[in-house]
Specification:
By secondary structure, the protein is mainly α. It has a domain at 53-322 and 397-417. The protein has 16 helices and no strands. It has helices at residues 2-48, 61-75, 77-91, 95-103, 110-128, 135-153, 159-180, 187-203, 220-238, 243-256, 265-276, 278-283, 291-311, 349-353, 355-362, 395-408. Helix 4 (95-103) packs across helix 10, helix 6 (135-153) packs across helix 16 (395-408) and helix 8 (187-203) crosses helix 9. GO terms for molecular function: oxidoreductase activity. Keywords: Membrane, Transmembrane, Transmembrane helix.
């Protein structure tokens, strides 16, 4: 009987043991996700050693760039990228900006809109992915300044246009990460945004005095608050409906929804409308989405936040937007991102035959190497980035700008050079 009793109880005991093991394994995995995510956050804080508000006044430009690069490539790559896309999109709600884009035909076709997006992405990635005094950073800023200078001399780009564009690159990533990511930014990380973009504004020659509430700031957080307050006031005054706003918005939204099946494009447009917010949506002359779509967006991001925080291990392979080294076949640099048209993307094996390439091909999109050299698969040189009418132009002027940047661009705290 004892043997029979033992044999009868064994299966139940085995099931209990397996359920215990599974429960323990799940608990250990959840704890590991939590531990590794927050340990990396805390390790970053210890590495840069800015423990309190007083220490933020000494944050260097080098450290600020390194912190932002970590956020963009490891901690929050997807939401960070989306925030920059939306920041650029938001500038199209200002008629003085959108009218210039419309007049220069940069949004006259989907390909032109993609090229403009790629050029902007390349320049931002270059000066975000390398230390402030890296040669590629200086070349990227110099090229950007040359492009802007042609329109500034013609009176088509104002200081306010540049300052507003700068402001959205400060504020939108902070807003998006705090709203949609698995954790909020730390004070040190927020300070880094202010330090980095203040330095970029200086390099662009943007004037703050007489425009922002202050002309000097103790640290990046003070600068962020000042430029954020100015931007909100500027939007209330100048983000108004205009045909050029809608023209640029329509071209970019069509790219964002390119892979959405036709039957669902209307729903996709409503979701984009939710992300715009009331003021920008009105300026773009877009209809208000049905109330249910606001709930859909909130629910999707809430689920993503929960899954990322509790169920996913942190990323350990950086997600870079640009290649670190020139293409050995062409001597040019390749871009890794694109919406629809693969400008500057290397037509390597995975880019043409990997899972993502198959999805793009089946959806009717373009893969790297499509249409020969149309999308410049060999990569970019800095003197060729920008509007087609400026391709290869301004080399001498850009060299002068580069020399000025080498002489003036600080690696230390930019608030020591406050305007």
């Amino acid at each position: 009987m004892g043997g029979l009793s033992s044999s009868l109880s064994y299966p139940g005991m085995q099931r209990t043991s397996w359920s215990t093991y599974v429960t323990a394994a799940v608990a250990m995995y959840l704890s590991l996700c939590w531990l590794l995510r927050f340990r990396r956050r805390d390790t970053l804080a210890k590495k840069f050693n800015y423990p309190d508000k007083a220490s933020f006044a000494r944050m260097t430009n080098v450290d600020a760039q390194a912190i932002l690069q970590y956020l963009a490539e490891l901690e929050f790559p997807r939401i960070y990228e989306m925030s920059l896309q939306f920041a650029l999109f938001k500038t199209y709600g200002i008629p003085t900006i959108s009218s210039l884009l419309a007049a220069t035909k940069e949004f006259s076709t989907p390909e032109n809109a993609s090229k403009r997006y790629a050029d902007t992405g390349v320049l931002i990635a270059e000066f975000s992915s390398h230390p402030p005094r890296h040669e590629r950073v200086v070349k990227a800023i110099a090229r950007m300044n040359y492009i802007h200078s042609r329109y500034q001399k013609a009176g088509k780009i104002s200081n306010d246009d540049l300052l507003y564009t700068l402001s959205v690159f400060v504020t939108e990533p902070i807003s998006w990460i705090n709203k949609y990511e698995w954790r909020d930014l730390t004070e040190m990380e927020i300070c880094a945004f202010g330090v980095f973009w203040k330095s970029m504004g200086d390099a662009m020659g943007i004037q703050y005095q007489g425009v922002l509430a202050h002309s000097e700031w103790a640290d990046g957080i003070e600068f962020m608050h000042d430029i954020s307050a100015w931007a909100k006031s500027y939007e209330n005054a100048y983000m108004v409906p205009a045909a050029s706003n809608k023209q640029t918005a329509d071209e970019l939204v069509s790219l964002l929804l390119f892979y959405v099946p036709t039957y669902f494009k209307s729903a996709g447009g409503h979701l984009v409308g939710v992300m715009m917010g009331d003021l920008l949506r009105k300026a773009m002359i877009y209809p208000d989405p049905p109330e249910s779509y606001f709930g859909i967006v909130s629910t999707v991001f809430a689920i993503r936040r929960f899954v990322t925080r509790h169920l996913l291990l942190p990323r350990y392979i950086p997600q870079r937007a640009i290649e670190e080294h020139p293409n050995p076949s062409t001597g040019r640099y390749n871009y890794k991102n694109y919406l629809v048209h693969p400008f500057y993307n290397n037509p390597g094996f995975l880019n043409r035959w990997g899972p993502e390439a198959w999805f793009v091909w089946l959806a009717g999109g373009k893969i790297p190497g499509s249409d020969g050299d149309k999308y410049i698969p060999q990569g970019y040189r800095f003197e060729e980035v920008g509007p087609n009418i400026m391709k290869g132009k301004g080399v001498e002027e850009t060299n002068v700008i580069e020399q000025k940047l080498w002489a003036e661009r600080p690696s230390g705290c930019p608030f020591a050079f406050a305007r």
